Amino acid sequence: MTLPDTSETRFADAGSAPPPLFTATGVTVRFGGLTALDTVSLAARPHEVHGVIGPNGAGKTTLFNVCCGFVEPDEGVLRWRGDPVGGLRPHQLAGMGIARTLQGLGLFAGLTVLENVMVGADRFRRTGFGSALLALPRSAGDERRLRERAMAAMAELGLADAASAMPASLPYPVRKRVAFARALAADPELLLLDEPASGLGAADIAELGELVRGLASRMSVVLVDHHMDLVMAVCDHITVLDFGRIVARGTPAEVKDDPAVIDAYLGEEADRSGDHG
Ligand SMILES: Nc1ncnc2c1ncn2[C@@H]1O[C@H](COP(=O)(O)OP(=O)(O)OP(=O)(O)O)[C@@H](O)[C@H]1O
């Protein structure tokens, strides 16, 4: 049984494991009278895939949104490489080396696939703020560098042939890959994935699993997803939430048979059958 532990010392006591890149410690989020997260902690370590699972309404998306800076926690501390990052805002993420994909893909409808993916590489643009402000064209060198990064990310995702397509012309699983390629083009140290498997069939989910596993050699990944098979197959470490609290954490093998996890999911099953009955 893996006990919930919200103390910061846990991270310091983790033996020879490398220090985490990113930590959220003692995070509490309240929406009016509802406590969506109650003193939840999470550590993303280098080269580790960290999964966050839990039944509907457990607080997964809220935790993801805290990590992305979309939701400011009422309590708790976020740290990047050990330094507190108070008031984290989504636009700061790329500069820090954090990329994310969201449930809503957020692709620009008026841009081609290549142009969408180049947006992800934008942190490597060298042309200064002043040029951007004056809407001067990007330098030819910048343009080439961003294009090369984007093409490399697209090749990794099998999208090279779709470079000039408009997103709306592509099937949903391909659009998901475009959003993924855009995140990879930022060459992040930490990749945050919200429900990457939603809307995908079994074959695409299996491919996604292989891709995510492969990414761990060069970055840290936090993955929020409902698909147990995917989470169990690709994650090194899993945090299980229920009603805003951590009910278990550990390796897939440790959490799989944890009675608290089984209870949480059985509770969800019971609710569902109640809904239909
Ligand atoms: N903006 C909000 N305002 C009020 N309540 C919210 C808000 N966002 C989430 N909640 C509530 O907080 C709780 C946690 O929601 P959250 O979406 O984080 O759970 P989840 O585990 O991602 O669920 P699901 O798997 O259904 O997406 C739920 O009870 C939800 O209704």
From TrEMBL:
Keywords: ATP-binding, Nucleotide-binding, Transport. Pfam families: ABC_tran, BCA_ABC_TP_C. GO terms for cellular component: plasma membrane. It comes from the Bacteria. PROSITE patterns: ABC_TRANSPORTER_2. One of its GO terms (molecular function) is ATP binding. This is Branched-chain amino acid transport system ATP-binding protein. It comes from Prauserella marina. The lineage of its organism: Bacteria, Bacillati, Actinomycetota, Actinomycetes, Pseudonocardiales.
